[in-house]
Amino acid sequence: MLRPHRTSLFSIIAILWLLTPTSTPAQQAESLAILDLEGRGISAVEAASLTDRLRNALVRTGGVTVVERGQMEQILGEQDFQLTGCTSNECAVDVGQLLGVTSMVAGSIGKVGSTFSIDIRTVDVQSGRITHSLWRDYRGEIDGLLGIMPEIAAELVSAIMAAEPPPTEAPAPASIAIITQPPGATIILDGQDAGTTPFDSAELEPDSSHAVSINLDGYQPVDTTIFAETGQSYELNLSLKRLMSQLTITSTPPGAVVFMDGRRLSPTPLSLSDVVPDRQHWVSLRLYGYQQADTTFFARASEHHRLNIALQPVRTAFATPPAAEPKPEAPQQGPQKTMMPMKRGRGMLWMGLAAIVVGGGSYYIYTYGLPWGQPPGDGLRVGNPPSVPSQ
Question: 9-162 adopts what CATH topology?
């Protein structure tokens, strides 16, 4: 008669207590329950007694955790599970799942003539496969089998503890791809040269950190760390930053306005940290009362360039008397003539003037030649002799 399905709280607590590891690592790895050995040529009572002796011998080894007979019967009874006739591997797996153990022990004791044959096997509850098996033949009285059960238990536990753990799959490697703009950068991966960009793929040890360094001449280096998770793919797409040049411009006297590549900048002294490298730059300095100074320089990456420019004052012309009007003329090869009226008898002559024509009122006109490009001096005095009338 089937009883209603129920589970005793006491039974659950008891079986958990029995399966709790108390001493050795093997106890944590293996918990066993034993089905009654099948009797072949011996009585069921004799088979049950020999099963109990084997169970006790396994417990005494201290190498495994064993569920006692009474506890097995109580739990299986509460689940309406009948042990009668349960000798197959499939039935052993069902019992093991109900008891919550990792392995089941099953087997048989047979008699042929005056010889007893003992066959024992362990069945993995999760996979259903036989993990260990052993046999013994004994010739003599049946009670002599009680003495060899401890030997069988010791050999069985030794085989269980010596068994290799089931193979585990190696974690899938991670991978990385690296692209840079511009390409051609050198890649150092975990301290090893890995090639240049674009870099298609490299396997990384999973679940660990990896150092990546990227270097290209004329560009700032990139250093980063990647934590590679199992089976993941990573891509680094980097725009490398150029290494700029530095420039310091000073002038004597200071305060000259700086023009660089046609762009007006601040007065001198001036410091720049973002000068584009690998090209020639034009620099012009302008300060009132001084000649414009022009120069060029070739900027190189990561270099600090310094320009110290001494400005030259412009030439001054004086007219006597002050009412006279000096008329600077451009050189013959110049595009046109220029007039530079003087105030209070003084005017500035810029580099490039070739002659000064002075005249006015009742005075003769005098021409004073100036060499083309003559450097400035303290001034050129131009006078009109008042005693000679003009015609």
Answer: Rossmann fold (3.40.50)
